Amino acid sequence: MRILLVEDDIMIGETVLDVLRAEHYAVDWVKRAAQADTALRTEQYDLVLLDLGLPDRDGLSVLRDLRARQERLPVLIATARDAVEQRIAGLDAGADDYVVKPYDVDELLARIRALVRRSAGRAEPVYVHGDVSIHPATREVLVAGQPVTLTAREWAVLEPLLARPGMILSRAQLEEKLYSWKDDISSNAVEVYVHGLRKKLGNDLIQNVRGVGYLVPRTGTAA
User: Does residue 90 contact residue 60 with C-beta atoms inside 8 Å?
Assistant: First the structure.
């Protein structure tokens, strides 16, 4: 799962970054509204943790711009603004939840998990390829009717390929799903996770286009 952390306070940002990564979330941290806008337009995230008091623009404008594009990406506001009318303004602007600083990190993690569960309840396709069926909303994977467990990074490689059957994704594009911006990337990381997926799901699901990248063939169906 990949989270965009929008927080200009260095101490808070570093603490939250460490906590989220300890929970095995991939995290991109930006400190300004303009950086958040760019990240949200160019990258794919599962959740946004959004501060409102940003140095270049109010965080609510970032949220409004996101919702104007009709993107239903879960957004959790984390701010020092604790007045009732400010909470109402944040929720009315399209936030899914609101937590006031200083917050307990365990509560923050619980709210993130709740938003992820709620997001998973939205209608999503079920991908079927041969005897493999994959439910993106719940991350349930069945092979010949039997459940198969994927690691978080195996899923991070598989999901973008499933979402675009027949489209080739380069190794660099898949690496973006595996790591946040400042992580060190192993030179063969994608190959390692593709190998693991093939062992679990069969050799035919993910195909290698030599010198270009990987794809899931269109012979799979989305119900």
Answer: yes
Tens of pLDDT along 92-141?
999 999 999 988 888 899 899 888 877 765 545 677 888 888 877 677 89
CATH tag, 2-120: 3.40.50.2300
CA gap 208, 214 in Å, rounded: 5
φ, ψ at 215 (rounded to 5°): -150, 160
Residue 104 C-beta-side C-alpha neighbours within 13 Å? 4
Return d(Cα 75, Cα 108) in angstroms, integer. 13
Tell me which DSSP letter residue 193 carries: H
Query: What architecture (CATH level 2) is domain 127-222?
Result: Orthogonal Bundle (1.10)
pLDDT of the residue at 124: 54
Could you give the CA distance from residue 170 to residue 5 in angstroms, rounded to a whole number?
Answer: 26
What token pair was written down for 203?
């050799």
3-class SS letters over 22-84: HCCCEEEEECCHHHHHHHHHHCCCCEEEECCCCCCCCHHHHHHHHHHCCCCCCEEEEECCCCH
The domain ranges of the chain are 2-120, 127-222
